[in-house]
Amino acid sequence: MDLSNISQYFNKLDLIKDTANQIIKDFDIFGMEVNFSGNVYNAYEELFNQIEPHIKKLIDTNQAKFMGILYRIDVSDEQIKKAINQNSSESFSEIITDLIIRRELQKVVIRQHYKSPFQEPKAKRKNKLG
Q: Which run of H or E residues covers position 70?
């Protein structure tokens, strides 16, 4: 599994939906609403356009909450420094937003990769019990 180019996974329908759900869940923990229309063809832009204003506001007004989100999503200082050096033309909030989306996608890809091939989806298990 090669995660060095996480962008290759942006065209996988199930991964994009799971990534959007993960983002929605993580931002909801901090009281910030993010929605996803389900349109995977512009998912990155849709999520980016919703997340970036939240990040910009947190950077300006609530550093503790901003750091909490980075910790929750697992975006490291090293990743931030590297991204800043590579993307000097983008604003700090844009760089952070991109890192957040890519990290959430990476977590979903890793989870999917290591999921047991013999494990049935939760919905099927519930139906067998009920």
A: helix 63-73
Alpha carbon of residue 14 to chain centroid: 14
Give the position of tokens 């389900």.
38
Other beta carbons within 10 angstroms of residue 19's beta carbon come to 27
Q: How many CB atoms are closer than 10 A to CB 83?
A: 19
CA distance 62 to 48: 20
Rg (CA), the chain: 16
Q: Nearest 5°: phi and psi at 47?
A: -70, -45
The H or E element that residue 18 is part of is helix 13-29
pLDDT digits (tens, 9 = 90+) for 45-75: 999 999 999 999 999 999 999 999 999 999 9
